[in-house]
UniProtKB/TrEMBL annotation:
Organismal lineage: Eukaryota, Metazoa, Chordata, Craniata, Vertebrata
Protein name: Sodium/potassium-transporting ATPase subunit beta-1-interacting protein
Gene Ontology cellular component list: plasma membrane
Organism of derivation: Nicator chloris
Gene Ontology BP terms: regulation of sodium ion transport
Family to which the UniProt record says this protein belongs: Belongs to the NKAIN family.
Key word Chaperone present: no
Top-rank lineage group of the source organism: Eukaryota
Length: 205
């Protein structure tokens, strides 16, 4: 009964889910546990919003719209983290919950980066260890992470506007739909009655 707005539902999942999955993959490769959890929750909310759009559940879409504000805030934090704003340091272990010293996957695998390992066996106390250096990167990894987060913010803003549009369409359909007589403002059965004076005249004759 709500096929009028189904045509606007199909574009909802593709860019949002693909962008979230792409970021999840690279965060997994870099063992960034905090972003991994945030991305996982984001994917769940996006699926919930998609389900609400297809199954006509405005409340689920509202949940997605509210989540976009949280998602924008999180990505702003990530941008500040990698740009070292407000005392944050990109070399800290904050994103790994201080359980590992891993950094972003892009720090060693960015465009043009060459990874070199130098043995440190000649230094006392560092036998069997190696020093890893990365040279030749065309773009520093922190700027790649900033671009990722900026793109996520852009998608979140687009998703928020689209979610508000879909909710407004559903609300208008609910207001205009009559659950007894459909969209017909007249009763289901309409009896044409003759005027009283005409009936009286026929009876008199």
């Amino acid at each position: 009964k709500h096929c009028g707005c189904r045509s606007c539902n199909s574009p909802f999942p593709s860019p949002f889910q693909l962008a979230a999955l792409e970021r999840q993959v690279f965060d997994f490769l870099g063992y960034q546990w905090a972003p991994i959890l945030a991305n996982f929750l984001h994917i769940i909310i996006v699926i919930l919003g998609l389900f609400g759009t297809i199954q006509y559940r405005p409340r689920y879409i509202v949940v997605y719209a509210i989540w976009t504000a949280v998602w924008v805030t999180w990505n702003i934090f990530i941008i500040c983290f990698y740009l070292e704003v407000g005392g944050l340091s990109k070399d800290s272990e904050l994103l790994t919950f201080n359980i590992s010293r891993h950094q972003s996957w892009w720090s060693e695998n960015g465009p043009g980066c060459v990874r070199k390992e130098a043995s440190m066996s000649g230094i006392k106390g560092l036998d069997n260890h190696s020093y890893i250096s990365v040279i030749g990167c065309a773009l520093e990894y922190r700027y790649i992470e900033v671009m990722h987060s900026s793109f996520q913010i852009l998608l979140a803003l687009v998703g928020f506007v689209y979610a508000c549009y879909v909710v407004s369409v559903f609300t208008e359909e609910e207001d205009s739909f009559d659950f007894i007589g459909g969209f017909d403002p007249f009763p289901l059965y309409h009896v044409n009655e003759k005027p009283t004076n005409l009936l009286f005249k026929q009876t008199y004759l």
